[in-house]
Design goal:
The radius of gyration is 24 Å and the shape is elongated. It has three domains: 129 residues, Response regulator (Rossmann fold), CATH 3.40.50; 121 residues, no CATH class; 133 residues, Beta-Lactamase. The protein has twelve helices and 15 strands. About 11% of the residues have low confidence. The strands form three sheets. A five-stranded parallel β-sheet has the order 2-1-3-4-5, sandwiched between helices. Strands 9-8-7-6-10 form a five-stranded antiparallel β-sheet. Strands 12-11-15-14-13 form a five-stranded antiparallel β-sheet, with helices on both faces. It starts with a strand and ends with a helix.
Length: 402
């Protein structure tokens, strides 16, 4: 007999699930709780084989419960019920340590089948667990503000989210997205929550969470392709652990006091940033304008103008990938390196433009501007005006990238 603990603050949902599993009562014992505190009491007094939890609950939410499981029950399989929806691009992240996520309203047939498959699996064969990638995606989807404490082996660090956006990270002497890349290499990570300090935590990660996770996966793929590189990285990690022993502390000041707000961008001060935003304001004259952003060549958002709630950071990063592929393709065609991509979609027009003053158009040169810009207008927007404004404004913005 396997004990499955289901946690949700909707009593009617818990009741229907208990009734739904009655045909399997010979092999499953369904236990329920209405919040994380109740669940903790059950976990302390019973042997539980699988936990399925909602995220938004009173008293103690699902995030805190998952963190508790990570610290006190690291081998216990866990699944999540949420409105979180996994786009196609995120499927690459669903590796053997990723968490199973049921989108609400739950399809009970799929739910039942997955639960049965899980409890019938032999020990060690159950592909569930709390990975740092899955946990961060859940935080983003629920737009949660929190300070995570992460522990692995004898090292610890912190990750800060504000309204679901990845803002800052520090781990084992590394900061920013490098800290996240390093954390993704580990599987057995303990996750907890810390009280957010009164001092404002500065933003040093400007790429979207998905960009960071995809880049981390790319690096891991490269390491797997070259075994010798794995050994070298491990040696470097050990060296960094020794050299940065004083930095790898649990003190949240390592995040709160970090001054490197714009470490990824060659922008000369707040005055220039304000000037870029002023230039972007001119896009408002375009009929149907929704959003625009200035990006570094690798797709990191520098600043944006957004009047329609568009996730310009993520959309711009994807448009940037399309632009880069188009540039490579036009070079192969022998027609020169393309500089503008127009994507016509059912709901909007997306324009991605590259301006590179370097002699080698595939590289970045000191003192020469290299900037990408993305503009989004609705389906009925003025396409011709969009292109004209884009050409003029990217020239203005380039001044601040030289």
């Amino acid at each position: 007999m396997k004990n499955v603990l289901i946690i949700d603050d909707e009593k009617s949902l818990l009741f229907s699930m208990q009734k739904g599993f009655e045909p399997f009562k010979d092999e499953l014992n369904i236990m329920t709780a209405e919040n994380g505190i109740e669940a903790m009491g059950i976990l302390e007094s019973h042997d539980v084989d699988l936990v399925v939890t909602d995220l938004k609950m009173p008293e103690m939410d699902g995030f805190e419960l998952l963190a508790h499981l990570s610290e006190h029950y690291p081998g216990l399989p866990a699944m999540v019920m949420t409105a979180f929806n996994t786009p196609e691009i995120e499927k690459r992240l669903t590796g053997e340590r990723s968490m199973t996520i049921f989108e609400k309203p739950v399809n009970f047939d799929d739910f039942t089948r997955t639960i049965l498959d899980a409890v019938r699996s032999e020990a060690g064969d159950c592909p569930f667990g709390i990975s740092i990638s899955s946990f961060m995606q859940l935080i983003q989807s629920e737009q949660k503000t929190c300070l995570l404490e992460v522990k692995v082996q004898d090292k610890s660090g912190h990750i800060y989210f504000e309204d679901g956006e990845l803002i800052n990270a520090a781990f084992s002497g590394l900061k920013g997205d490098d800290a996240i890349y390093n954390l993704m290499e580990y599987q057995d990570i303990q996750i907890g929550f810390k009280k957010i300090p009164k001092k404002k935590i500065k933003r040093i990660i400007h790429a979207s969470l998905m960009q960071v996770l995809m880049e981390g996966m790319r690096r891991m793929d490269e390491q797997r392709d070259d075994g010798s590189e794995d050994e070298e990285n491990e040696n470097n990690n050990q060296k960094n652990d020794v050299e940065n022993d004083q930095e790898a502390t649990t003190d949240t000041d390592q995040i709160a006091d970090d001054p490197s707000v714009t470490q990824h961008h060659n922008i000369k001060g707040a005055t220039n940033m304000a000037s870029i935003k002023e230039s972007l304001e001119k896009f408002k004259a375009v009929e149907g304008f929704m959003a625009a952003g200035a990006f570094s060549p690798n797709g990191e958002l520098v600043t944006e103008l957004n009047v329609a709630g568009v996730n310009i950071a993520e959309l711009g990063a994807l448009a940037n990938d399309v632009l880069l592929k188009a540039q490579k393709a036009t070079e192969i065609m022998g027609v020169g390196r393309g500089q503008l991509v127009h994507i016509e979609a059912p709901k909007a027009h997306v324009f991605a433009r590259c301006l590179n003053e370097a002699t080698d158009f595939a590289a970045t040169s000191a003192g020469r501007a290299h900037v990408h810009m993305v503009i989004v207008v609705d389906k009925e927007g003025n396409v011709a005006m969009s292109k004209m404004r884009l050409e003029n404004i990217i020239m203005e913005v380039a001044e601040h990238f030289r």
